[in-house]
Write a structure and sequence with these properties.
The structure is a homodimer of 244-residue chains.
Chain A: E1 2-10, H1 27-39, E2 46-47, E3 56-66, H2 72-82, E4 87-95, E5 107-116, E6 129-131, H3 137-147, E7 149-152, E8 167-178, E9 181-188, H4 195-207, H5 216-222, E10 237-243
Parallel strand pairs in A: 3-10, 5-6
Antiparallel strand pairs in A: 1-3, 1-4, 2-3, 5-9, 5-10, 7-8, 8-9
Helix pairs in contact in A: 3-4
Chain lengths: 244, 244
């Protein structure tokens, strides 16, 4: 028996997120079925996190046990060839028997893409939130600097998904611009439900002047969802990296 | 009555090419329906060329007549908003009454993308032909230089689609590499059916050593499809620009 860590990449457009659920096609379901067919045995697959419907992943991690003699590298090609074109296995390695894709994760990096253009681009439409009005990168970065640090992020979390502890540490958060693509990168030790998407939505409202930088401290203190911005669309969000 | 030239961009993955045909969804059909709804009148839409099923376009041109007072710029936003996410109108301008999107075209530029990697990438899979074995850029460019010029391209055209004149002039053809993406760019005054895809397939076979540079002159002379390479998959092909 050995424990394997798979790193996969997927275009989430057609999936209802990672986690298996009734009546929806999910990445975990497709990957489990493919893995079981490949190994010809049942497999329990544990992911590093749930992801929302429509969210993409450059590097998503999950683990499983197998007593097979298949070398790790063989999973990369063997599974990728059997998976649909929007899911790929990009790495596979053996890990310690007590390793857990979720609990061993020290942090995650997400990227969010905004297409700041009044021209629709069919090749970016699946992977970015298009905003026509000109966004203010300076202001957005000013907001990002307020996000960095250890805060109670309850106001940046979707209601109805309460967890006991809403304090998280964000170690980096910044915005860059390349032509008409704006990219927000954020790294933290953990993220609440919809936290990145609400941070992005709030960042855009700060750029628009609807929310002021001077209000952010109070927003953290009051912990009310109504004080933060819209939840940015899932399609612009990419899980970039899981840090172990 | 005025004649308008539309420039559109589309991800061809889900379409059976440009031209309306029974029992298949095409870009022309979707655009015509959207335009007729927008103008509330029937419209005849003429494209710059047919494109194959699954081929993409960065800039495809088509024209139509309307007696509407809508300013050209209004078509860009108005149509794009009504079109599905994989089709966009990126420009619209008034042209002379006798302008024709197809017959006035002096040439076209196509680009073909190859992902030269043994790792499947779900974000490139829709837009590139993935080849695992290492390709030889030097050899590919040597082949491209043989393609430039005025030649009888019948051997580079799919059988069964014969046209009277199979002589075409290619003014540029070259390959560049950026990380694991190989891009072939070709410009010509006209292209036969599947010509670019067969040139790409032949270029790859030259890289593999299955076809020799020294054979190319004979291939042109003998005009036999059996002497050229495979037809590269549609998904890697982009119409980049129509030259008027």
């Amino acid at each position: 028996m050995k424990r394997m860590l798979l790193t996969i990449s997927y275009d989430g457009t057609l999936y209802h997120g990672w986690q298996v659920q009734p009546n929806s096609v999910t990445v975990q379901q497709i990957l489990s079925e493919t893995l079981e067919e490949f190994l010809n045995s049942s497999v329990s697959l544990s992911g590093c996190s749930r992801t929302d419907a429509g969210v993409h992943a450059k590097e998503f991690c999950c683990h499983f046990d197998c007593d097979d003699s298949i070398p790790p590298k063989a999973f990369i090609r063997g599974l990728s060839a059997r998976l649909p074109e929007d899911i790929s296995v990009i790495d596979c390695r053996q890990v310690d028997d007590d390793f857990h894709a979720r609990y061993n994760a020290k942090g995650k990096t997400y990227a969010y893409y905004i297409l700041n253009s009044n021209i629709k681009d069919p090749f970016k439409e699946r992977y970015a939130w298009r905003i026509e009005r000109k966004l203010d990168i300076e202001k957005m970065n000013e907001f990002c600097r307020k996000i960095v640090g250890t805060h109670d992020f309850e106001a940046f979390s979707s209601a109805g998904k309460t967890v006991a502890d809403t304090v998280r540490t964000v170690s980096e958060c910044f915005v860059t611009k390349n032509d008409d693509i704006i990219r927000l990168q954020i790294t933290g030790n953990g993220f609440l439900y919809n936290m990145v998407r609400i941070i992005v939505g709030t960042c855009v409202e700060v750029s628009d002047g609807k929310i002021l930088i001077s209000q952010i401290d109070d927003i953290f203190k009051n912990r009310k969802r109504e004080n933060t911005g819209v939840t940015a669309p899932a399609k612009g969000l990419f899980l970039e990296k899981v840090i172990y």
